[in-house]
Design brief:
By secondary structure, the chain is an alpha/beta fold. It has a single domain, classed as Alpha-Beta Barrel (TIM Barrel). The protein contains 12 helices and 10 strands. It is globular and about 45 Å long.
Length: 263
C-alpha cells in the first residue's frame, strides 16, 4: 500500500485499525430527514463524541467543517424518487473528492440488483483511480435483488464483501448477519477490514451497543451507523459509547454507563 493511502487511512482508522464512521449522505437518497437538516450542528455533536470519520457528499463537504474527524466523500448516488433506486450512479470523481479535502472516498454497490454490472464496472474503475492517487476506498457492498430473499444472509453478505475486496476496496461496509458466529464467516473470508452498516433505526440504544459489541467479537473493524446516530437524542454520548466499544473493548454494561442509561 502506498504511503499516501496509508497516511489517509490513519485519519479514518486509528492505530488499532478500528473505526467509527457516521454516514450522512442520506440527503440525496431520502432528502433532509430528521437529524440532518442542520449538518454543521450534528457534525459538531458527533465530533465531540469522538467519531473517527464523517461520510458526506461533495456539496456538503464544501459547506461544513468536520474538525479532527476524517472526511469521506461519497461518490455514488440515486434518490428514492427514481424507479430504479438500487441503480447507484457515480456523482463525484476521485479528483473532485481530493479537491474538497477528502481522506477517503466511498462507492455504493447493490450486488444482485438489475444494474450490478454497471456498479461493479464503476467500482473497479474507481479502485484503480484510488490506487493512482493514494486515496483509500470504502466500498458499501449490499446484497439486494430479486435472487436475494434475505439481505442479511451470511452467504450473500460474505459474497458481497468478498467482491468488494476482490475489486480493490480498502474497507468494506456491509450488513451485519445477526450473530457472532455467522459474521465471523464474513470477516474471515474478507482480506480487508469490514465495518457493519446500521440499517434501519434500532429500537433501543442497548440494541445498538450490543450489535456493535457482537460484531467486534466477530472480527469487525468497526461500524458505519447513520440514522442510529444522527437521529439519536444523545448523539454525542452515543458516539462516545460506541467509540469505547470499538476502540477500548468496553462491555455493553460499561458503554451504557457512559451513555447515562441505567442497567
Amino acid at each position: 500500500m502506498n504511503s499516501g493511502k496509508t497516511r489517509r487511512l490513519r485519519r479514518i482508522m486509528q492505530r488499532d485499525n478500528h473505526t467509527v464512521i457516521v454516514p450522512m449522505d442520506h440527503g440525496v437518497t431520502v432528502g433532509p430527514i430528521q437529524g440532518i437538516t442542520n449538518m454543521q450542528q450534528i457534525i459538531d455533536q458527533l465530533v465531540k463524541g469522538k467519531v473517527d470519520a464523517i461520510l458526506i457528499h461533495k456539496g456538503i463537504a464544501k459547506q461544513v467543517d468536520v474538525g479532527n474527524a476524517g472526511l469521506i466523500v461519497m461518490l455514488s448516488g440515486m434518490s428514492n424518487l427514481s424507479p430504479n433506486l438500487n441503480g447507484k450512479v457515480q456523482v463525484c470523481s476521485v479528483q473532485g473528492a481530493i479537491r474538497v479535502g477528502a481522506d477517503a472516498v466511498s462507492v455504493h454497490v447493490n450486488v444482485g440488483s438489475q444494474d450490478e454490472d454497471k456498479m461493479l464496472h464503476n467500482l473497479g474503475k474507481v479502485a484503480d483511480e484510488c490506487d493512482f492517487f493514494g486515496m483509500p476506498l470504502l466500498a458499501m457492498m449490499y446484497p439486494r435483488g430479486p435472487k436475494i430473499p434475505n439481505e442479511h444472509g451470511v452467504d450473500v453478505v460474505a459474497h458481497a464483501a468478498r467482491i468488494g475486496a476482490e475489486l480493490g476496496a480498502d474497507i468494506i461496509k456491509t450488513n451485519y448477519t445477526g450473530s457472532i458466529d455467522s459474521f465471523k464467516t464474513v470477516t474471515e473470508s474478507c482480506p480487508v477490514p469490514v465495518v457493519i452498516a446500521g440499517g434501519p433505526k434500532c429500537k433501543t440504544l442497548e440494541e445498538i451497543l450490543q450489535t456493535t459489541a457482537d460484531a467486534m467479537k466477530a472480527g469487525a473493524a468497526g461500524l458505519s451507523f447513520g440514522r442510529n446516530l444522527f437521529q439519536c437524542d444523545k448523539p454525542t454520548l452515543l458516539s462516545k459509547s460506541l467509540s469505547a466499544i470499538v476502540h477500548e473493548n468496553v462491555s455493553v454494561e460499561q458503554a451504557l454507563k457512559i451513555l447515562g442509561e441505567k442497567h
